[in-house]
Hints:
The structure holds two protein chains of two kinds.
Chain A lengths: L1 E5 L5 E3 L2 H9 L4 E5 L8 E4 L4 E4 L6 H32 L1
Antiparallel strand pairs in A: 1-2, 1-3, 4-5
Chain B lengths: L1 H7 L15 E6 L6 E7 L10 E4 L20 H4 L34 E3 L5 E3 L9 H5 L5 E3 L9 E5 L2 E5 L6 E6 L11 E8 L4 E7 L7 E9 L10 H6 L1 E10 L9 E4 L4 E8 L2 E8 L15 E7 L19 E4 L5 E6 L8 E7 L6 E6 L8 E4 L3 E4 L9 E5 L1 E3 L10 E4 L5 H4 L8 E4 L5 E3 L2 E7 L9 E3 L18
Parallel strand pairs in B: 6-10, 21-28
Antiparallel strand pairs in B: 1-2, 1-30, 2-3, 4-5, 7-8, 8-9, 10-11, 11-12, 12-13, 14-15, 15-16, 16-17, 18-19, 19-20, 20-21, 22-23, 23-25, 24-29, 25-26, 26-27
Amino acid sequence: MAIYYFTNAGEPCTPFEVTGEDLMKKGMAIKATVPDGIESWRLSYDTSAKAVVVYAEGQDEAGALAQKQTDADAQAVKDKEKSDADTAASEAE
Amino acid sequence: MSNLSKLFGGGSTIDPRKEGLPLFGMWGGSSDMNTQMQFRVFDSNFRVTSSPWAAVSSTTTNYRFGILADGSHAYNMKDHGTDFHSNLTTESYSSWTNWIKSLYQVDQYPHCFYYTASRDGFVTWQSYHQMTSSFEYQVGWTKLNMVLPEGIRPRRTFTNRRFTMREFMGNSDCNTDFYDYSSHLLNTDQAYATGTGYNEKQKMLVMVHSGDESANTSKTIHIFRSSVCLNEGTKRIKDFFDNLISTEYFTDTWTNQCVKDWVVVVGNNGYVGFGLKQSNSKRYGVFDCNVKGTGVAITGASRQWTTWHDFAGSTTTSYGANSGHQYYTKFQTTWDGTWGMIYSPYYYYGVGINAYCMSLENPRKFININQTKSGRANPYIAWGRTGFHGGWSDNCDSEVWQTYAFAFDPKDSDHTIQTRVYKGSTSGDGAMPDNNSLVGGDFDNRTGVCSLDAMRTGLHGGTETTNYPMLMGINWWGNYGAADQSYGGK
């Protein structure tokens, strides 16, 4: 486990103590413990639950990237469906 | 010629290179890019300046946006792609179609990697098919990092490789000037120019030579001061070197994963910042390049201010020039030329940002800038008088467009005090709070990290359905806004 500092929006900010503690004093960071070996892009801090969230937990980096691509592809399908529906609705007006 | 001399010279004539406050282009399209698209140009106040144009099509074969006869070279949808909002985690040839939103797209030079966009609102895509043979792709890293007066972007493109400087014209690959400056060097131990910066106010040129164009750590740094400005319109590169008033050098050993990443920021006070992407992080060091005398201070240790500084923000897998010369570390300045930014992506091939922002009056004053997105990239460009914005391109369906914008104090150059950064919010009450608090923050020199916040702009993406807007650089907006309230002052 390691210390990581997140922004108040829950985004990764810094792993460095000097920088992080200074931001904490200014009310600009949240200190949390994160699992080792996880790239920071997969980390976020849920400010409501007050807990660290790991994207694609249990996966390695390659698995997380694959999951990200799967999610993006699914979103693209949803986007297309929404766009087509909106266009059809617009044309029907 | 006399007219040119007057235009580029001093006196009361306004420098013809000077532009009004920055404009930016905004591309909005539906998710499949086949049915609706729109392009608009805005000023720094987010007021539209061009006639917005749009196109509607119901077939994948109509890709010419024919209403304005866009000069696209593409011939099918594989070029313009269907996935502008790619996560940018791969670098295969086909994925280049996604990279028009990458942070690599724009730097301080007016031309962009994949397109040109005029202030009149016309955007024209470059052909991807020859991109890998282009100047920017292969040798964009040889361009000089320019510190220029207020409102001016580089209008002459100088490059430096080996012992030779050349001049090019924007996106053209044709040389227009050439000069072998080796006779002016005091030390030729390292033969590969790998990072060059120029300060127009000081007429000061600083260049790094390395032992190869890969990862060699041996360095020779030359510092030239001339009585002739390199950018003066009637002058040639040779004129700068023929009129040198001082030449000094120092040697050192610098860690670098790829020498093509070096950015050289020549400050107005003679201190020079050298920065680059290093692994997933970055490094930045400052050296006193003021005149010391012949044969004096010829080691790095005798000129370095404090030590090298590793990036203090969050990092993840991301790529620099060691993964491909086109990923070289970028440099930009604010419109007023008071702050600079050495930057590269936070995430893989072009998402988010990891940057050092430094005072161009005094490069010893610098902080770390962080934005840790892992999808929906957009490039960053100069915004307003003393700021930058960009980076956000999430879905604007039923949502206004946001940016990660931030601004500095143009008078703030004291490295012994904190750096103030002005930011915004995703709500009006957040941007203009019911209290007396600063919206932004004060950050310690060297170790302070400013994480950028998204903020609303009031602009919709351009269509009434799914769309992921793209921020685009504009080649030239001239003095647009200089005669009205958009300029930002009297």
